[in-house]
Design a protein that fits this description.
138 residues, single chain, alpha/beta
Length: 138
């Protein structure tokens, strides 16, 4: 009786391992993402200007239109950081090698040093036109 119980238990363990392995083989995601640290995020009437770190001592800029942040299913999402010492960053998601969406993790308080405002007399409207993806610089 003990041998029968032990045999059944071993069969269950092995079948579970084989089943789990088959599931994990087919569950590779078609998405990948790249995180970049945000040095400054500027609010503008047409969207957000993101100044991010490119390498150790260089910066790059990207422009995110406000339309991307409208409703569920948009290309962009602003996420408030909860941890008091967390530094803002941006996660750019790609699906099958092409831009899918972006999540911008920011401090909720606009008084934080990473937030800025583009002065009203500066017009950069043209930089927000016809933007369909983000090409990060490294």
């Amino acid at each position: 009786m003990k041998k029968l119980f032990l045999t059944i238990a071993l069969c269950l363990v092995f079948s579970t391992v084989l089943f789990a392995q088959k599931i994990s083989e087919g569950s590779e995601s078609e998405y990948f993402y790249i995180n970049v640290n945000i040095e400054k995020i500027y609010a503008y009437r047409k969207g957000y200007v993101i100044l991010y770190r490119k390498g150790i001592d260089q910066m790059a800029t990207t422009y995110l239109p406000l339309e991307w942040f409208d409703g569920a299913g948009g290309k962009g999402e602003l996420v408030s950081l909860q941890a008091p010492n967390a530094w803002p960053y941006m996660s750019v998601y790609y699906k099958n090698g092409e831009f899918s969406h972006v999540k911008v993790y920011v401090r909720k308080a606009r008084a934080h040093e990473t937030w800025g405002i583009v002065p009203l007399h500066i017009n950069i409207d043209d930089r927000f036109e016809n933007i369909n993806d983000i090409k990060l610089e490294f």
